[in-house]
Amino acid sequence: MSCSESTNIKSFAEGDILHPQVLALFPLCDLTEEDLSQNPQFCKLLVTLTKHVDSTGLTLSLKTELEKADQKLQSQRRNWLRSQGLFQTLKEMIQEHCVRRHYSTVPPDQNVFYETMEKCLLVAQCVRMLDPSNSTQKEQPNILGLEPQQILQLMPLEKNVQRMKQSLPHELEKHLKNKCLSLLCYYHPEWENKSENLKCTKLSYLAKQVDKDKKNAESLKESCRENKILLQRQSQLYLSELIKCIKLLQTLILDHRLKIQTELDKKKLDYFEGKCELVLQKIKTEMVDIQLDTYTPDTISAHRKIREKLDSELKCCQEEKQGAEVKLASFEILGKEFQALAEEYGRLRQEIEMKNWALKEFTQYSNK
Q1: DSSP of 25-39, one letter per residue?
Q2: Average pLDDT estimate for 176-180
Q3: Terminal-to-terminal C-alpha distance of the chain
Q4: What pTM was estimated for this model as a whole?
Q5: Residue 182 and residue 105 share a domain
Q6: Residue 320: helix, strand or coil by DSSP?
Q7: Could you list the residue range(s) of the whole structural domain that residue 15 is in?
Q8: CB atoms near residue 261 (< 10 Å)
């Protein structure tokens, strides 16, 4: 931390604006001014820590080492991207040549050039895969038992390789130039039909424009991120206030309901009692109407005569029942022997009836 920053810390540590500046020095901490006010010793600790750590929480020595490691990483990353970009560009050139060869006639020297370049790339890839020097496993077995020297024997003829190396910068430059012109036409479609010299002049401004667009995109991305964080905080605040309002509304509803619930229940009870009484009276009225419609004076007199006749028949039946019960009681006195005689008598009567029926049927068919 610089001397000016230390002086600023000492100056505001004694004033009333301590809390906002402490929060500004530790933006990643989820703290509020109220937290610092309730914990003054913790606030002093944070002020002391500002002399040893930066705003992200890293110590000054660790931050220096991290910056050196980041610079080394960026340098290696640039080298890797440069070689990877060159490799992808050469593959694109080979693919475009294959497509062009299918649709048009290509000079023999170009065929030899691209075939030689393709073989060189394949051999270089295979050698790189077989070379264990870049691997953490030094004793890694070779693929199919092949050695890098055996793959190098598949290289094209030396004279073809030399010709390819001599022509490669020119072809690569031409390919990259075409890609740049295509990118220019993408940014400015109106320049597609312009002359090549004019397009080359405009290419000098394309890098600035791409860089500007990139910075605008990053700025928009950062603003979107800030807006997202702000929206999340506002949404959280809105939800907390909404929950408070809902709780207050629930309290008001419950209080109001408890006050009027008894009176409301009493009114409902009186209403249902009155309604039930009205329904009962209506049912009784309907029953009386049905009886009046059903039982006329003539019907009542007929029912009386029927009742008298049924009563007399019932009386006769009861007398017969009593007589039968007396006879049955007298028969039961005779015991089991009489029961056997009664069963034999019943069987004989049944046989007599069956024979009479058969005789009747026989006589009927004989007459026919």
Answers
A1: H-TTS---HHHHHH-
A2: 83
A3: 143
A4: 0.42
A5: yes
A6: helix
A7: 3-57
A8: 10
